[in-house]
């Protein structure tokens, strides 16, 4: 009888596929719709959990998910790309995260313009190949094969009436393509700077807002003026503009300003005295004359004094050591042995 009863119960469970959306709980669930989190604080049925573990957990999960979905259907909805989605509120439960929540990427100029004008790009169902009537074959819409197909089409260029006969139209078209590529790259970099809130000048040199002090601005102006084939020889300076200090070492080809010769004997004497003072500041052993008293002093470095002390200690130790014995008149001049060692 027990076998028959178990079979009937299994059949009843298999046939009861559709259950009610209403679920009763003694303790209501705490539901956070912002994070789609449902917390069940009802006590577990230990007997059912031990006897039929999988079935009990399956039913418990189904009931809790049903309560969560019931709450979601009470939220306001909207249609996005032919799909109905619910607008979730702000989360109340703070989930632990190892990193910050990624911020949405800012729209580019084209995306913002398309959003304002309501322009929609249709990417779905778009073919990668396109029929070309001139070549009479299917060519890709992008890629290197597309460029090869364009070269086959544009093997000859019609010259205009006002065109220069000495100008190569193919090289002109290549330069125009390179300019478009450079413009697109510049626009891409500007979009990156805009997304990171970096201020950039629209045209020309950077303004004072991009430099912390006037020295950096003067260095930028000097580098911009000297960055020519003639190293700024034919570039006119701005009014009251001076070359940045210390920039001549970094700019190859830029002439350094030489010091003017002394105007009189007093100026020359002062320069020589400053030069001698700079030399005397070093730690070398030199003879120094005091101009005020006329007394000569010997300036020694700390390293020389330490070497002398070490040498004196070595001499004291050597005095106590035994002297080497002589060869007693048996020294052979042809051999490198014998004789008294000299120190």
Please, could you describe this protein's structure?
The protein is built from nine helices and eight strands. The protein has 343 residues and is mainly alpha-helical. The model is unreliable at 293-303 (pLDDT under 50).
Beta-strand content bin: 5-15%
Low-confidence segments: 293-303
- Our measurement of the CA-to-CA distance between the termini, rounded to an integer number of angstroms, reads 119 Å
| Molecular shape | extended
Total strands: the figure is 8
The proportion of residues forming helix, as a percent range, comes to 25-40%
Could you state the order of secondary-structure elements as H and E? HEEHHEEHEEHHHHEEH
Alpha-beta content class: mainly alpha
Give the neighbour order of strands across the main sheet.
Answer: 1-2
Average pLDDT value? 75
The largest sheet, given as strand count, sense and whether it forms a barrel, is:
2 strands, antiparallel
Please count the helical segments.
9
Query: What is the radius of gyration computed over CA atoms, rounded to a whole number of angstroms?
Result: 46 Å
